[in-house]
Amino acid sequence: MKLSKIADFLGLKISNDIEIETLLTLKEATPNSLSFFHTAKYLDDLKSTKAGAVILQEEYVKYLPDDVIALITNEPYKMMAKATSLFAYEPSVIEDEPILQKGAKVAKSANFGQNVKIGKNSTVMSGCYLGDNVEIGEECIIYPNVTIYHNCKIGNNCIIHSGTVIGSDGFGFVSKDNSNEKFYQIGNVVIEDSVEIGSNCTIDRATLGKTIIKSNAKLDNLIQIGHNCEIGQYSIIVSQVGLSGSTKLGVGVIMGGQSATAGHLEIGDRAMVAARGGVTKSLEGNRVYGGFPAVDIKLWRKTQAAIMRLVKKK
Amino acid sequence: MKLSKIADFLGLKISNDIEIETLLTLKEATPNSLSFFHTAKYLDDLKSTKAGAVILQEEYVKYLPDDVIALITNEPYKMMAKATSLFAYEPSVIEDEPILQKGAKVAKSANFGQNVKIGKNSTVMSGCYLGDNVEIGEECIIYPNVTIYHNCKIGNNCIIHSGTVIGSDGFGFVSKDNSNEKFYQIGNVVIEDSVEIGSNCTIDRATLGKTIIKSNAKLDNLIQIGHNCEIGQYSIIVSQVGLSGSTKLGVGVIMGGQSATAGHLEIGDRAMVAARGGVTKSLEGNRVYGGFPAVDIKLWRKTQAAIMRLVKKK
Amino acid sequence: MKLSKIADFLGLKISNDIEIETLLTLKEATPNSLSFFHTAKYLDDLKSTKAGAVILQEEYVKYLPDDVIALITNEPYKMMAKATSLFAYEPSVIEDEPILQKGAKVAKSANFGQNVKIGKNSTVMSGCYLGDNVEIGEECIIYPNVTIYHNCKIGNNCIIHSGTVIGSDGFGFVSKDNSNEKFYQIGNVVIEDSVEIGSNCTIDRATLGKTIIKSNAKLDNLIQIGHNCEIGQYSIIVSQVGLSGSTKLGVGVIMGGQSATAGHLEIGDRAMVAARGGVTKSLEGNRVYGGFPAVDIKLWRKTQAAIMRLVKKK
User: Fold this and answer.
1) What is the pLDDT of residue A178?
2) N or C: which end of chain A has fewer CB within 10 A?
3) ipTM reported for the complex surpasses 0.90
4) For A141, which residue in chain C has the nearest alpha carbon?
């Protein structure tokens, strides 16, 4: 799509026209993508972005690398949300035959969009739906009634249990003047090799870019993974955990049952969050945390003991 | 159904016979409905009910408006539960063709009960099931593997993501003498315009009457909405929230991730409940709450600080 | 399968060969089963096991009953995990016709593995998948898009709501040297009579043996029941509860909304855990508990009051 078409749609001016293939964050952006800058927190990303064009406020134009085209507005977030509507997925009811590699088996009642690829010796059981351009690697088992939305990619040796939904829209709205405008979710989900995901989980697609679950991560049931999360290799996520958007877990992180994170934070390698822990800020690796807000688990246990002493004195 | 048939089934006497079309609460009741009164909390509703007949204890008969027929029993709740069995939905395996308005598209593998209507330009994707008499408005997207039970209504411009279940039974049992008798759930779910619901949510049908999600409300994933809840316009409900039966949210309420409410309470317009907040009583609007039991968030933060001071003194 | 074949696969020696039909815990084991001993906690079970053979460390061989064959290793848990791979379910895409008793009805779009039996007057609605050897009792309603994995058994008069998954794998991995090896889940789920299960629940199959939900238990929506749990008769489990593996609930236990348990513990008959209660150790029956870690609810309320006093003094 021509940048000029997007600019017209938004009512913004541009100094030069280029071809835009997709929308991406400043950090992930490529020369054929449009990005946006809406909070000073990402100023370093702005200064080094490889984007072809950026939607931003006038005062920040000076930080743009050379040759990056500026789309100036007072409301960059709202404008980017509007721009996403041009790239939104058009839901399709076409059911097509998948492309099967040797040894791949699909149940008769499984349904496929267009251009779906199933790798060697993989099995897709009854009632599954795999959307347009989904790719499944080799030696996978997709249990019955799993839904995988368009453009998502699954690696080799993965197991996905029934009822799990991969690639549904991240929760993104622009709330303004008592209205909730949709920020269309145009990214996808990438699941690497040897990942197992339990039943009735929800793994949201990225707003822009990708939500990624790295190799050997194991997820239990009823888990929520928000848009743009990154789950590190060998991580263990127990049932009913909820990770808000853009949470980044390191290698070998363990999230106990019903624990959760606020968004846009990082948990370091081999950190463990005890059951029910509520993580509100980034945490260092190689330590154990508990409580809400989550703190070092020894400290949390001390607080519990102190509370009990308050009562027992009486 | 004749009231006399119901009375016979319950072993209760009536002074007059009328036609009963449905069962409703005292407040919602119409002249052709049967209602019940089982707790003094609803005495005002009893005094002003428009019901044709009411099941109640003898001592409250004096509060009944003129012409309302009394069915007298010592166990009105249990008797009403028994009466619901006469109105219970008979599950059907009939799969029929839906009635499509112009531009409506349904996937070949989507399944429909009888008398299902799909509005203009709406899309119903693979593997969905829409039960008898379901109505979908215009310009909706129903993603794959959604289930909508009989008699539920969806407005215009709604998006419902995969795995979500709308209209399953509310959780209602009469526990007595070590048994759990089913209170059949004979209401429905009504979803107004421009509502988006994430994946793997559960929206229970009303016990009597309707569960309602008002226009422009946005729900994330894995959310539980109990029977007879009312979700106000422009409300935002984040992932893994649980609303117990008959919770009423005002306009623009925000419920943070994993927050929850006890049942039969109201949260005022534009109130915000922080993540993990547990609401145990009605809350005023235009304020922010947190903690469990939920209190003003500033107070909750003070309690957290005070707990930390207990520990750090040592 | 010959024990010698298993021993060869594991690289372990045996003194005698027998036929092994399945793998079971020491307590449930039968003469044609292989078991394992990996923690001193189960020494009594070891001394009285009826297993045909046991994988264990050398120092514990002396506690084995006569005639039980020992498979000696320093890593019994890891070896047992490896042995489970020999008994793992081979996922199948075969869709067959179920065996229907008189009055049983199945929707055309429901899918069945091989050798599925549907009892008298039971109904299986659209889009359900019932795996190989599943048995459904009489007078059941299985609502649309339910998934029941192979070998699971449902009693009479049961109701299972949409999106619920019964029999998916328990969450079992052997974490060692930065890898997560799968402990294959070769048990099943048994649901007794008159059980109702809400929508989008997940009931995991047992690792070895069975996960069991006893008669008249009622489960709300979005509930996680871990592998090898035992839910007592007449229990009530409210929405979003999570029970970790091997939790045992007595008769008439009530678990409030979003409450949870750590694994391998027991809750006594008629105990009640209030909403959000987090049970970390076994609890006596006939009492009410609350808080996290869960304590007597009166004590929990006192702690809440004490915390508030801390703040109000200032």
Assistant:
1) 66
2) C
3) yes
4) C91
